[in-house]
Amino acid sequence: MSAKRAACEKSDDSIADDTTMFDLAPVSLWLEDFSGVRAVFDGWRARGIRNLAVFLKEDTARVGEAMGAIRLLKVNRRTLELFEARDLDEISQKAAAIFGQDGLESHIAQLVALWHGDSVYQGQCINRALSGRRIDVDLKLQILPGHEEDWSRVLLAIDDITEREAARRQATEAKDFAFGLFDHSPVSLWLEDFSDLKAVLDRWREEGVADLAAFLQEDTARVGEAMGAIRLLKVNRRTLELFQARDMDDIRGNVAAIFGHASLEVHIDQLVALWQGETSFAGRSINQTLSGRRIDVDLKLQILPGHENDWNRVLLALEDVSEREAARRQAAASEEFALGLFDHSPVSLWVEDFSGIRRLLDEIRAIGVEDLRVFTDVHPEFVQRCAGEIRVLDVNRHTLKMFGAADKRTLLDRIDQVFQADMLPHFREQLIDLWNGKLFQQREVVNYSLDGNELNVHMQFSVLPGHEDDWTLVQVALIDITARKKAEAYLEYLGQHDALTKLFNRTFYAEELNRLDRNGRQPVTILVADLNGLKALNDEFGHTAGDALLRRAGEVMAEAAARTYKACRIGGDEFVILMPLADAREGEAFAERLHKLVSLNNQFYSGQELSLSVGLATREPGERMEETVKRADDLMYRAKRAHYAKTDRVSRTLTNIAS
Q1: Which SMART domains match (predicted)?
Q2: I need a surface site. Which of 167, 263, 269, 424 has the fewest CB within 10 A?
Q3: Structural domains of the chain ordered from first start
Q4: pLDDT at position 446
Q5: pLDDT for residue 108
Q6: pLDDT score for 648
Q7: Cα(659)–Cα(651) distance, rounded to whole angstroms?
């Protein structure tokens, strides 16, 4: 059993050895040992600690004690690149600088989740590159299967979100703004005059200031001097609602309370960007409402086109991400649209005419249809007919970039490549919501770029104010979430597969066995296989040789099972093939195929021979799957004893010959 346990542990380590899945992953991956954290927790529990969050906040040094007990085992190439490190040793030595105090709240949340028994955690925090550069990240942590008791293998995935590619709003002068589009925007918008701030920065430059960041950090009162030179011109309704203010004067009189000292670092970063000649800036900050409630926001700043020299028109967009509640744009009539504000939006925006869809829905309602879901079950072609009635009126620049179109004409001429048939189920749900009077909607859908790449997008749909009766103007906002979906799929894969052999793991095996038990009428054949000689190979040549043999076994099992059956690795040298709908004759045929593939594999590889002891059983009427597995297991052990008995006889014969 010790050899099997060691092999299991090695299978977890192999996550870092697998070039395809770990080292070349597009996100930063960290393989860590949290057993020390668990020991710290056990000590705290023994002292009677119950509320960990309160305990940590009373003395934040305790956070450092817990996080310092983490042992880093391996990182991938993306980690070294992201944090500007030479190697694993440099990452290990400077972990405190990377995670630092910026991530204190995230550390506490992560520790509290583990304290409560969660094996998965995800959140957002701030890290630092070794050069000091700030990195905002999406963090996802998973205690690997088989290590829920000791936490000795934990996978940490870090996705860099600081460079979310988003085109900056470049608006024309104030006279070009359409009040309706500005005032009904679903995000908080601030129109500000930065010309006095520019004068402050110019004066500091004339006085010989070269390194603005160092200059501001020497005396943080200088940050207040600079930010105090900003003049507020206008805010929208969403700003008043978000910050719980009566009017713009209420906002103007409480700017310091809203932005406060919690945003000091982002103020410095913003000023440094402007100092260096940037016309746009994006970051994450902490604000406060006038009642003192904390708000986490995504901040996006853009000097509007035509004002790059005097900075007297700057658009600031604040999106509330603390609750992910985003009010949808309620736009005024089409003539009120400001082309600049729309065209330079940092998300994909579509203006469409849904009046044809409204007409079709009214027609079937008039003939007595009450339940659109039932109607479209019977007449699925109605969904396609409605899709054909959508008229795209306009799109912005970010839409062209996101979908890989050279211009609007190209996109509209090839629109059928963007919205393919597999989007119809999502569109059907959108129609049902419209039928039920829901004029603002959001959901995740799949689109395609013009080069054929699949795009996972978060869609937000809104019928614009004044068009609730005819739907002649609707606005659709699309946010690309493809990277997030890939990361989620990767973590899901890790949860169901053995990293060494790529076969399904024990978790999947147990779930599938339960499913087969519930469907007891179908025939099922079980093949249990044990890898012969693994312990001896590990003892003589080390676990690297043993892992190589396990990979070969995985290759053979996967090839034999193909897409018809499920090949699982359930232990160190133990494998199971689940064969739904296969009777005993088909099971025997599969076992023969497996035997031939093993022979073929041994012809291809030199050195250690691949040998399996196999047991085969087919579920009998009324028999539970556990009993079927037990019969197959018994047959496998009988075959394994016979294998080793034969090996012993050959060994004794060779010994006698040698004597």
Answers
A1: GGDEF (SM00267)
A2: 424
A3: 19-160 (3.30.450.20), 174-343 (3.30.450.20), 348-480 (3.30.450.20), 499-658 (3.30.70.270)
A4: 86
A5: 92
A6: 55
A7: 12
